[in-house]
Design a protein that fits this description.
With about 260 residues, the chain is mainly β. It has 2 domains: about 90 residues, no CATH class; about 100 residues, no CATH class. Strands 5-6-7-8-9-10 form a 6-stranded antiparallel barrel. Strand 11 and strand 12 form a beta hairpin. The longest helix is centred in the N-terminal third of the chain and has 11 residues. The radius of gyration is 20 Å and the shape is elongated. The N and C termini lie close together (about 10 Å). The N terminus is likely disordered.
Length: about 260
């Protein structure tokens, strides 16, 4: 939507962000939206040599999200209020054709054949991760990469401890290491159920505003921005201009960045 009487905000905004595409999930596909948790330099896309550790910075992955509801112009939000709600989902899944090798520090240590993995957007491609089941609690999961895109996984990560979401989750990936060639097939994204995500106003301190991204009520990560008449706060696929009002934030303008 384009708020009437705020053309100046959006002309300034679009002049500075022409061609901008949302990177989450926290990436986005052309038709999907998502939050970005990292903007790290992409790594070289080369095959993993057997037995050789691949050096790679710790990576936050991103997921896809579709807007469900958002606060509107002139609404006042206060700490603890939800400003936007999304449905988090995955574009593709993958089915393992064989068991993976055991890896210490993860659960399960060996991922069995037939397991459905969910796709995550990385800085330089995609990975596939084991889903979390509700009764498993805190876990460190495995994620896999097909570095040369030949239908076999040849490298894998271990995530940080996960307490976010039911099946889909966001976690930092670390320890990219070569694995024996592990064949898989790409399968539809709807094999993994979608999950709700909220953007929640956390705090207001002077001109600094902090937001939390929450998946199934569990905090994923945060976003911080400043009150600025020329630059909006970008929260997932939404952009907002705010002003301080009655101890909260009054929305001056909001825009769906993926709207035609």
């Amino acid at each position: 939507m384009r708020p009437i009487g705020l053309e100046g905000y959006w002309m300034t905004f679009f002049s500075k962000t022409f061609g901008w595409a949302l990177a989450l999930a926290l990436g986005a596909t052309a038709a999907m939206t998502g939050p970005s948790y990292a903007d790290r330099a992409a790594t070289a896309n080369e095959r993993a040599a057997e037995g050789k550790l691949l050096q790679m910075p710790v990576t936050d992955f991103r997921f896809n999200a579709t807007l469900v509801t958002t606060s509107k112009v002139d609404e006042i939000i206060r700490p603890g209020d939800v400003i936007a709600r999304f449905e988090v989902h995955v574009t593709n899944t993958a089915r393992l054709k064989i068991n993976t090798i055991p890896r210490r520090g993860s659960y399960p240590q060996s991922v069995p054949a037939g397991t459905i993995l969910f796709e995550v957007q990385l800085d330089n491609g995609v990975g596939y991760c084991t889903p979390v089941l509700p009764d498993q609690g805190l876990r460190r999961a495995q994620c896999f990469r097909d570095i040369n895109k030949d239908g076999t996984f040849d490298a894998g990560y271990i995530t940080e401890s996960i307490d976010r979401g039911l099946r889909i989750y966001s976690a930092r990936l670390q320890g990219l290491s070569p694995i024996p060639q592990t064949p898989y097939e790409v399968t539809p994204g709807d094999l993994i159920p979608s999950e709700p995500a909220d953007v929640v106003l956390k705090s207001i301190s002077g001109n600094k505003i902090k937001f939390d991204y929450k998946l199934n009520g569990i905090r994923l990560t945060g976003e911080e921005c400043e009150l600025n008449s020329e630059k909006p706060c970008q929260l997932m696929s939404q952009a907002f201009f705010f002003e301080l009002k009655d101890g909260g934030l009054r929305i001056l303008a909001e825009q769906d960045l993926n709207a035609p």
